[in-house]
Amino acid sequence: MKTAFSLFSFEEDANPAEIFALVKKAGYEGVEPVLGDFGYLNVSSSDEDILAVKKLAEKYGLSIPSVGARNLWDNNLVSDNGETREKAKNIIRFELHAARLLGADTVLVVPGYVGTEISPTTESVRYDIAYERAAEAFGVLKDDAEREEVKMGIENVWNRFLLSPIETARLVDEVNSPCFGVYFDVGNIIYIGYPDQWIEILGKRIFKIHLSDYRSSQAGMGAFVDLFAGDVDFGAVAKSLKATGYDDWLTTEMFPNYKQFPRVSITSSRAAVDTILELYKNA
Fold first, then answer.
1. What is the pLDDT confidence band of residue 221, given thresholds at 50, 70 and 90?
2. Does an H or E element contain 214, and which?
C-alpha cells in the first residue's frame, strides 16, 4: 500500500508548496488536496489553476490519489432547502472534474447530514428523508462520476447519518455503480462502532482509507489525537484490511487541533503510519 497526507489537516488557505515539501520529506508518496470556497483549490478555479496544483505535486514527486471537499459542510446534500441540495450536487460535480484533471481516481464526499456541530449553518433533517434524498442525489451523480471516470467515496463523518455498516452498504448497493462506494475513516467511527467490523462488512465497497484516531473518554472534536494515542485498534484494522483484500492508499488525516503548529502532524505521524504498514504486512 502507498501512503498520503490529507490537506483536511490544515486551514483552507494553506500553502500547498509548503505542505507538499514537508509531506515529501516525511516519506509520504501522495497528497490529498481539498476543495473549498477559496484558497489553492476552490469552486472558481480554472482548469489551468487545477493543473497547476498537479504540476506542483509532481515537482515534489507526489501522486494525488484522492480529492476532498470541505464546502459540503455548508451545503448539505440532503438539506430541506432544494437550492442548497443543488449547490451541493454542483460542488461534487466540480470535485469530480478537478479530480480527473489532477489524476485522482476518487473523491471524498460528505453524504449529507441529519445534524452536525461541524457546520455553523447546521440544520436538522429527518433521517428517513435524508436517506431518500441521498439515494436520489447519488443516483443522479453516478452518471457524472462515470463520465469523469472518477469514483465517489462517501465518508462516515460525524453527520448523525448512515450510522451502521449495514445501512451504508445498503445505500451503496442501491445506487449500484462501480463509481460509488465508501471512503472509510477509521477514527471517525469510534464514537458509534468498531472500525474493523465496518471494514469487514463493507468489504470491497471501500475505495479509500483515512487514518485518524479518537479517544472516546474525551468529548467532541478535541478527542481526535495522534495515531495510537486513541481507541482505534490498528492491529484489528490491519487484519480486516488484509482479510478484505484492501491494497489501496492509506491517507493520514490529523484533525487540525495542533493549534500553534498543525504542520507538526506531518512528521509526528510518520512512525505510526510505518507501524500500521508493518501490522498489515504481518497480518
1. confident
2. strand 213-214
